[in-house]
Write a structure and sequence with these properties.
- The structure holds two protein chains of two kinds.
- Chain A is α/β, with parallel strands linked by helices.
- In chain A, strand 8 and strand 9 form a beta hairpin.
- In chain A, helix 2 runs parallel beside helix 4 and helix 4 runs parallel beside helix 5.
- Chain A has one domain: 3-Layer(aba) Sandwich (Rossmann fold).
- Chain A is built from seven helices and nine strands, in the order E-E-E-H-E-E-H-H-H-E-H-E-H-E-E-H.
- In chain A, the strands form two sheets. In chain A, strands 5-6-7-3-8-9 form a six-stranded mixed sheet, with helices on both faces. In chain A, strands 2-1-4 form a three-stranded antiparallel sheet, with helices on one face.
- Chain B has a single domain, classed as MetI-like (MetI-like fold).
- Chain B is elongated and about 70 Å long.
- The chains are: A alpha/beta, B mainly alpha.
């Protein structure tokens, strides 16, 4: 697989406190990279740096060619839909911001909305949606812009176990369907094993990558043990 | 609804009781006032004076709302402009609108212009301050979404900042409208011809206490109708208020 993002010696400090220290990794096209770590290890900071919401203190994040198109879209921990808009207008907002031509908007969203089973909800106010439905719309909002990389900040953490499983299935289905590269942060080992092609563990303060592995179905239990040990080290 | 109706009946009964107890020409009872109201409606004076007051409020308030929302938004979004305005406004805000009446008469003469100015002074500050606060405290959660989705400044302003600020803008406009209404009556009491305030003053000269109370009740009813109307508008305009995802 071709490389899509090259992260080189990335460090980030906030008010002179180092959060991330010299993170280097490469992300390949179409892979699902999961960044695992305990609370406070800088996972979200890493994601925000990739999203361009923060600027690195040193090091670089380089998007490999093609240089055209949208690099990233971020799905937040909470859906963060705009309550003054309908579902459709929340999705239109993303497309309008991405300068997608108006005549493509409906075509872009209708297929994705159908894939997550929310076609009937498209003209409803987002205030009428459950958290699970809202998070699925947030996923569609990210994907409809057709970003090179979809960034997910613990998108299942606000859900109960049943909805979490459903949304994980929806996510897997959508990223395979759209062949989108995904970077997700989580502190849940099972979630990481279920979704990841590649897992990196952030550890210590300032955080560095302490483990990088590519889980397989056959080695799942061993991988799980290694991740558990690493997180509780 | 029933409780509101019963409290109204209770207030009228209390008023009637006090009028009987005091038995004074300066404290007319509800029945006498009702007869005076019928007369005022029939001769058209209540209608024409109400229209005069409402027109003044409409003009003064519209100017205040337009400037208050525009400058308030600018001040809220641009912190340097906000800081520039803040001290001047905090200095002017506590001056009650009626204190401007003598100067307004000197500057604009006796007439509508003075009343518009007084209404403007009454309504502008609460609108400006509320709008400025609304824009300066726009939720970071929403602004971060706009940034993460690379929304342009214009898209962020129109689709995120404005609707996020709308509940507080509506609150400012509602408070401003209430103050505009009380200000126009104050202005008409001392410096303007025609209108409900001026009518009260004219009736005082002829000791028509029933007529004065009818005007006062009309002022109260129209003020109540304005707030009732703005509440309905607010529910229609910003139905998402107090909900977030």
């Amino acid at each position: 697989m071709a490389q899509i993002i090259d992260v080189d010696s990335l460090s980030f400090s906030y008010q002179e406190k180092a959060i991330l220290k010299s993170i280097s990794l490469s992300i390949k096209t179409g892979e699902a990279l999961v960044v695992l770590g305990a609370s406070g290890t800088g996972k979200t900071t890493f994601l925000r740096l990739l999203a361009g919401l923060l600027q690195p203190s040193s090091g670089s994040i380089r998007f490999i060619k093609p240089t055209t198109g949208i690099n990233t879209r971020l799905v937040f921990q909470q859906p963060r839909l705009f309550p003054w808009m309908s579902v459709r207008n929340n999705l239109y907002f993303a497309l309008r911001s991405a300068k997608v031509p108006r005549d493509e908007w409906d075509q872009r969203i209708e297929g994705l909305i159908a894939e997550v089973g929310l076609t009937d909800a498209i003209d409803r106010s987002v205030t009428e949606l459950s958290v699970g439905m809202a998070q699925r719309i947030a996923l569609v909002r990210g994907l409809c812009c057709q970003p090179k990389v979809l960034l997910l900040d613990e998108p299942f953490s606000a859900l109960d176990p049943k909805r979490r499983l459903q949304l994980q299935k929806d996510l897997l289905h959508l990223i395979r369907l759209t062949n989108t590269t995904v970077v997700m942060v989580t502190h849940d080992i099972d979630e990481a094993l279920q979704l990841a092609d590649h897992i990196v563990v952030l550890q210590d303060s300032p955080a560095t990558i302490s483990l990088s592995l590519q889980p397989t179905l056959e080695s799942r239990e061993q991988d799980r043990q290694r991740l558990l040990e690493e997180l509780h080290r | 609804m029933l409780r509101r109706f019963l409290s109204l009946i209770g207030a009228i009964v209390l008023w009637q009781g006090m009028a009987w107890g005091l038995n004074s020409v300066v404290f007319p009872d509800p029945v006498t006032c009702f007869s005076a109201a019928i007369l005022a409606i029939e001769d058209g004076s209540l209608w024409s004076n109400s229209i005069a007051s409402l027109t003044r409020v409409a003009i003064g308030y519209s100017i205040a709302a337009l400037l208050g929302v525009t400058l308030g938004a600018l001040s809220g979004i641009t912190s340097s402009i906000g800081l520039m305005f803040r001290d001047i406004l905090e200095f002017l805000r506590p001056i009650p609108p009626i204190a401007w009446v003598p100067l307004a008469i000197v500057w604009f003469g006796i007439g509508d212009s003075s009343a518009w100015f007084i209404v403007f002074m009454g309504a502008f500050f609460p609108i400006f301050i509320q709008v400025s606060h609304a824009f300066s405290t726009c939720s970071d959660e929403y602004l971060e979404v706009a940034k993460a989705y690379e929304a342009s400044p214009w898209i962020t302003f129109w689709w995120v900042r404005c609707p996020a600020a709308a509940p507080q803008i509506a609150q400012g406009l509602r408070v401003g409208l209430g103050l505009a209404w009380t200000s126009v009556i104050a202005a008409e009491l001392v410096g303007v011809k025609h209108g409900l305030g001026d009518r009260i003053q004219q009736l005082r000269y002829v000791s028509d206490y029933e007529g004065m109370i009818v005007c006062m009740i009309t002022i109260g009813l129209l003020g109540w109708a304005m707030i009732f109307g703005t509440n309905i508008l607010q529910r229609w305009w910003i139905p998402w208020h107090k909900s977030s995802m």
